[in-house]
Structure formats: structure tokens, C-alpha cells
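Morning run. Coffee first, then this:
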Amino acid sequence: MTADFFTALVLFAMAGFSDALDGFLAKHYHWESRLGSILDPLADKLLLVASFAALTWLDLLPYWLLWLVLGRDVLIVVGALAYHYIVGKFELLPLWSSKINTALQISLVLLVMFHQQVLFGAQYWITIMTWLVVGSIINSGGEYLIVWGLRAWKTSKEQ
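And here it is:
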């Protein structure tokens, strides 16, 4: 089982590095596009949700946390689609709370995998990181509701 977590760590690190490199190159050389601004965060979310699902399946993370992660992501996607079809086209700009949430989720996944590989006895830190992720999910999801709700309200008042 240890080898499986080592492979997972390597693949997760490669995915993270390639995502960071892709983001840097896109910004540095102005290779940005609307499609890329949609697909990049979706790919990030797919990686994180798959990681949370796998760790939950292995009983390394609680099911309620997976449902909370999924719920926030569904809320954002449904909200974005509703905004697009009801209010109009919008620029998909992630909020800082979302970037922090993503960083905390990545940190939790890495910590759980490291715990399985080498950091035996890190359960205390996994518990703390889990609650930081919970707080971040609530904060970020709430901020998306407020920010995009206000934008939708202002846009509808202007029309």
C-alpha cells in the first residue's frame, strides 16, 4: 500500500507543477483565453474532487467532508450557469477566498498522503487542516453567493 501512496504523491505533485507552469506561461506570454479560463479551474477541481473521493473511499477522510467539497463546487457551477443564462455573460474571475480554499484542500490531500507514506502520527495536523478546509469552504462558498448575487442584482437593476 505504501508504494501506491508514493505513486499518488508523485502524480499529484506532477499535476500541481504542470498546472503552475501552465498558469505562469499563460500569464507571462499572454496565452490566456476564455476557454482556458474555464477549463483550467475545472481541471483543478476535477483533480481535487478525485483526490478527496479516493481518500474518502480509503477511509482516510470523512464522507461529510467530501460532500461539503462537492457541495461548494456544485454551488459555484450552478451559480455560474444561472448567472450566465439569467443575467448574462460574465468574466470568470476566482475570488481570493477560492484560491486560499484550493491551497488548503491541496495541503490536506498532501498531508493525508504524506501521513500514509512517511509522516506517521500526523493525525493531529490532519484534524486541524480538515477544520481549516471546512472553514474555508464555508467562507468561500458564502463569498461567492454574496459577490455574485450582488453582481446579478446590480446588473438586473441596470437593464
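Residues 2-158 form one domain. Good start to the day.
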